[in-house]
Amino acid sequence: MRLNRYLAACGLGSRRKTEELIKNGLISVNGEIVRDFIDIDPRSENVLYKGKPIKLQDKLYFAFYKPPFVISSLKDGTHRCIGDFFGHLDIRVFPVGRLDYLSEGLIFVTNDGLFANKVTHPSKKVKKTYLIKTKKQIESKLLNELSKGTILEDGFFKPLFISFTENKLWIKLVMDSGRNRVIRRFFKKFDIGIDVLKRISIGGIKLGNLAPGEYRLLEESEILQLTQSK
């Protein structure tokens, strides 16, 4: 089994994160620091992280409503973070992807690095749906311009779908991009201010009736829906 894949299965993070752990010399196998993605046999070889043994864990999958003004990380010295809501668990979990500090809504939290990789990898093109409240009502003509997309500093961006809700201060947007703060940068390009940015679904899994700071376990059918999609 490839070492980075094993580390992800042990809950140390996504495969990308575990690759960083290996490169930084934090993993040893049979007493030797390794910096390559070697193949191992977990049944017969001793794998340590920061000098401590690791093992495969029972998998947990949560849908979490991240409130605004919360950092999408496990720890932060200044602000509240997602880890503060899950600190009571005996098993280490981590957020899958991120929402920026001001944004709110659905984010998955798990200890399954392989699941995290499947949900966030750009090749999977997992669709995400957002509700956006603008600072002032925009005209239909401008919404039409938004639907055509535009060039940002990191390339062209075009939403898969964008429309007004019944209240024209709110806009519904669907995308499959994972680029950093792309919605805020996209709206700023058109001089549109955002009051609220709320993610309401990922890959068809909906935020539902969760209140800010609440979470629920994902159903087995939901996990399969996310991991078996393209």
UniProtKB/TrEMBL annotation:
Transmembrane segments: none annotated. InterPro entries: PsdUridine_s_RsuA/RluB/E/F_cat, PsdUridine_synth_cat_dom_sf, PsdUridine_synth_RsuA/RluA, PsdUridine_synth_RsuA/RluB/E/F, PsdUridine_synth_RsuA/RluB_CS, RsuA_PseudoU_synthase, S4_RNA-bd, S4_RNA-bd_sf. Pfam families: PseudoU_synth_2 (PF00849), S4 (PF01479). This is Pseudouridine synthase. GO terms for molecular function: RNA binding; rRNA pseudouridine synthase activity. CDD domains: S4. It is an enzyme of class 5 (isomerase). Coiled coil: none annotated. SMART domains: S4. The keyword Isomerase applies. Belongs to the pseudouridine synthase RsuA family. The keyword Isomerase applies. One of its GO terms (biological process) is enzyme-directed rRNA pseudouridine synthesis. The lineage of its organism: Bacteria, Pseudomonadati, Campylobacterota, Desulfurellia, Desulfurellales.
